Amino acid sequence: MGAAQRPADRAGTEWPARLHVVTGKGGTGKTSVAAALALALAAGGRRTLLVEVEGRQGIAQLFGTDPLPYAERHLADTADGGEVWALTVDAEEALLEYLDMFYKLGAAGRALRKLGAIDFATTIAPGLRDVLLTGKVKEATTRTVEQRRVYDAVVLDAPPTGRIARFLNVTAETARLAKVGPIKTQSEGVSVLLRSPMTAVHVVTLLEEMPVQETVDAIAELASLGFGVGRVIVNGTRPPLPAGRVVTEAELTRGLRAAGLPADRRTVSGLRDEARDQAVRRELEDSLRADLAELDVPLVELPLLPDGVDRAGLDELAAALVQGD
Predict the structure, then answer these.
(1) Enclosing H/E stretch for 157
(2) What positions does the domain ArsA/GET3 Anion-transporting ATPase-like occupy (predicted)?
(3) Would you call 246 helix, strand, or coil by DSSP?
(4) Residue 165: HSE in the Cβ half-sphere, 13 Å Cα cutoff
């Protein structure tokens, strides 16, 4: 079925961008969220592309596959016929492709690689690396075959919040510096796409002070640079505790005895202290949740997966992303 004929679905209509950039502080689970979003957007027989640009092979590890090459590969299917494809973008391979595409330096480009010239170029001009990475993402997002989009959506597992604004803005800086030529044209095209309604930047966080503060800072910086913020995705959340409910030592004692467990004073006191700590922790989480709500950006909360993230866990997160609006 061609892309233009694929049915619309709830995920596709409520996450309307075509390019979804997923960022977050390290340790918040942004790669898992990006993978789950790709699965969610593939629902209803759609086709999505999941892209990583940091060279960590996090997608392959998550799905238990061999390391991904610099080529688009079928990764997973959804229960209703959707497809998720994956791509790891390598800056060196992207530069070779760029040299061949615009300067017809196929064999010569490979010779430069053997001489180490490509590593040298991307090292002395680190901005060039990000231009190449975002350029490849833009090509996949806008590619068509017989006037039909190859992918209904592209999900980018992007650099963390501390680097995301610079990563996305490097094409605008390069376009200003380059006067003429393919580099200027490509940089301008990527910059326009990243600032258009076709792109949304989603920020993944935990209900912890450092990730929330980085989320607040990143959203402010992204907005100041003209990038559209999609959603704040709060990962690893737990069900709320009953308001004002404090477990007493008498209740703990009765519960332990009913379960046939030791109910000595030391055990009961330890459980009481743990319950108190949990209540304090939940109060902090509620305060941080309120801080995020003040950003005036849609919030989606994903459940904590006690057994870790496997394919079943990714499907659970995908379902939560679809139902989160």
Answers:
(1) strand 153-157
(2) 20-175
(3) coil
(4) 15
Q: Find the domain containing 203 and state its range.
A: 3-240+296-323
Q: Is 285 left (phi over 0), alpha (psi -120 to 50) or beta?
A: alpha
Digitized pLDDT (tens) for each residue of the chain, 325 residues in all = 444 445 545 555 578 899 999 999 999 999 999 999 999 999 999 999 999 998 889 999 999 999 998 889 999 999 999 999 999 987 666 665 655 554 444 454 455 555 454 454 455 445 566 777 888 899 899 999 998 999 999 999 999 999 999 889 876 655 554 444 556 666 778 888 999 999 999 999 999 999 999 999 999 999 999 999 999 999 999 876 666 567 788 888 998 899 999 989 899 888 888 878 777 778 888 899 999 999 999 999 999 998 889 999 999 999 999 886 5
Is residue 258 situated within a structural domain? no
CB atoms under 10 Å from CB of 20, counted, come to 25
Phi, psi for residue 162 in degrees, rounded to 5: -65, -20
Structure tokens of 24? Answer: 């977050």
Quote the tokens at residue 70.
């610099």
Asked if residue 228 is part of any domain, the answer here is: yes
**137, part of any domain:** yes
Taking the mean position of all CA atoms in its chain, how far away is CA 189? 22
Whether residue 261 is contained in a domain is answered as: no
Q: How many C-beta neighbours within 10 Å does residue 105 have?
A: 15
Which is nearest to 128 in space by CA: 72, 160, 175? 175
Total number of domains constituting the chain? 1
State how beta strands 19-24 and 153-157 pair: parallel
User: Cα dist. 134→108, 115, 186, 225, 254 in Å?
Assistant: 24, 25, 10, 16, 60
Q: Based on C-alpha coordinates, what's the Rg of the chain?
A: 23
Extract the tokens encoding 259.
């379960």
Cα torsion at 170, 175, 181, 183 (round to 10°)?
A: 10
Specify the CATH number for the domain of residue 59: 3.40.50.300
